[in-house]
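agent: user wants the structure for VWFC domain-containing protein from Pleuronectes platessa. delegating to structure tool.
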Amino acid sequence: MARVCVYGGNTYRLLEEFRLSRCERCRCEANREVYCSISGCPAPHCVNPTYEPNHCCPICKAGPNCFAGSRVIPAGQRVNIDEQTVCYCTYRDGTWHTHPYATCEQPPQPSPTPDARIKPSRDEDTYGKGGRTYIARLDAIP
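agent: tool returned. relaying tokens verbatim.
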């Protein structure tokens, strides 16, 4: 009995390992059968990975990123989505893997300047005749 495997028109010795491509690894087993496996790829650090001819696993050409709505934003930056919303990519606990969706916040609005505060009106309900302050007495209300 021959101590080889024939696979794809090629002959391999028993227990010999070989590659069919950058991603596929095969082995001629003792029972003369060829078993192949595809390389496991780590999760990409982006939401828009691309597959390149010379790479087995997808790559992130633009670096880590995430979605803010339908927009892809880069990790490590705060991005103004509109006049009231700032979004940024967050990382999964203990890793450099970004969550696929951004965290978005509405920044606190600045407090009004002293000149912009509303001044009480100067009518006779607040001030009595002659400009003196009028304080309503609850015990005088029938």
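agent: one observation worth passing along. The beta strands are 4-7, 10-13, 17-19, 24-28, 34-38, 65-68, 71-74, 79-80, 86-88, 103-105.
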